[in-house]
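Exercise 7.
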Amino acid sequence: MKKYLLLSAIILGIITVANAQTKKFKFSAGGGIASYTAGTGGKSTMGFGIDIIGKTDISENFEGYIQAGYNTFSSDGGSWGIIPVLVGANFKAGNFKPGLGIGYGNLTAGSGGVGGFAISPQIGYGFEKIDLVASYTNISVSDNYSLKVFGLKLFYNF
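Solution. The predicted structure, written as tokens, is:
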């Protein structure tokens, strides 16, 4: 099932990039706070993250996007980062933009890291040049272990 979802993300990315050849491709950059939890019932750790987003209108009501970011956390003398790379779409209802991204997420810690399939439902609200986005990203590292990142970020639209 994960292979089909990842394949769908790649196809959506190709369609978005191909569509960008004929329509205006826009960029956003931003950052904000993030909360990280590993496994089930794990301790939550606060951190911050930055992201860049390329987006284009797919139709009047849908916007496709490609997003990459880095979230950093530290606790108990250690630090680690999470790198999500997502392809997705937002439904545009006025300034309100709920959406869903899928892709790959990687946990970097020390000299190694693990990664897996990522899914990220997002809720955004667009102001004139700023987007406010709340997101939840779940990265499946193995069948019974996942990384969870909640984020609240502001993006500047170029």
